[in-house]
UniProtKB/TrEMBL annotation:
It catalyses: UTP + L-glutamine + ATP + H2O = CTP + L-glutamate + ADP + phosphate + 2 H(+). Its EC number is 6.3.4.2. GO terms for biological process: CTP biosynthetic process; pyrimidine nucleobase biosynthetic process. The lineage of its organism: Bacteria, Pseudomonadati, Bacteroidota, Cytophagia, Cytophagales. NCBIfam families: PRK06186.1 (NF004836). It comes from Rapidithrix thailandica. Keywords: ATP-binding, Glutamine amidotransferase, Hydrolase, Ligase, Nucleotide-binding, Pyrimidine biosynthesis. This is CTP synthase (glutamine hydrolyzing). One of its GO terms (cellular component) is cytosol.
């Protein structure tokens, strides 16, 4: 059986983060016996209902925002969340997963992204105090009842970034009351990873796991995502 995973993003083969993501797929695929296929799908052509009903069993929201079509990205995330399809998002993926959750679960209808709409009334995603482009942080895993902790099995991890925007901390409490599970924090208490309760795999990281993946040690979060796609499809 072949398992198809959509990588939703506007692929740029010259961008280092997209090169790293492509490399990480090769590194992880060799760990599985199953027939796996990863397809980059442009954000301006993706149609969620058709794609998930006829082809894809998992959704990876790639870095590289602002996307060509933000509406399609948010629609894909919503469909996957509501239909228990595994979702993995990094950097821009992390940001847009939070936007979708804020708008459709928390009722923050005007939740927006400062990079896209800097004059919005509810800037859920705002510019970081310090750029994280090509930076690393040591992060603390703060929830032992999480996919992240079950995967890493450590209290600390090193996150590598290519990012200038993150979650506005003013909205953190509201998101948590509606079922968002904060799983990793920076030393200054900023959210760097989250999950959604009662979903098989809805995991966002501001850091990019592909940037720390190697042929000798494929990133365990990417492995966990692919494994969940296979398990979820079988059931």
């Amino acid at each position: 059986m072949r398992y198809h995973i959509a990588i939703l993003g506007d692929h740029n083969p010259n961008h280092s983060t997209h090169q790293a993501l492509d490399d990480s797929i090769k590194q992880v695929v060799k760990l599985f016996e199953e027939d796996l296929r990863f397809d980059w799908v442009s954000t301006d052509t993706f149609e969620a209902k058709s794609a998930f009903n006829h082809q894809y069993a998992g959704l990876w929201i790639a870095p590289g925002s602002p996307y060509k079509n933000t509406h399609n990205v948010l629609d894909a995330i919503r469909y996957a969340r509501e239909h228990n399809i595994p979702v993995f998002g990094n950097c821009g993926g992390f940001q847009h997963m939070l936007l979708e959750f804020a708008r459709n679960v928390c009722g923050i209808a005007n939740a927006d992204h400062e990079e896209i709409n800097p004059d919005a009334s509810d800037l859920l995603i705002s510019k970081l105090n310090c750029s994280l482009v090509e930076q690393e942080e040591e992060l603390t895993l703060v929830n032992t009842n999480s996919i992240l902790f079950d995967t890493i099995r450590k209290e600390k991890l090193t996150g590598r970034y290519y990012c200038n925007y993150g979650l506005n901390c003013q909205y953190q409490a509201t998101l948590k009351t509606q079922g968002l599970k904060i799983t990793a924090l920076s030393d200054d208490g900023q959210v760097r990873a989250f999950e959604v309760e009662q979903h098989p795999f809805f995991l966002g990281t501001l850091f990019q796991p592909a940037l720390t993946s190697t042929y000798e040690e494929p990133n365990p979060l990417i492995y966990a995502f692919v494994r969940k796609v296979i398990q979820n499809s079988r059931h």
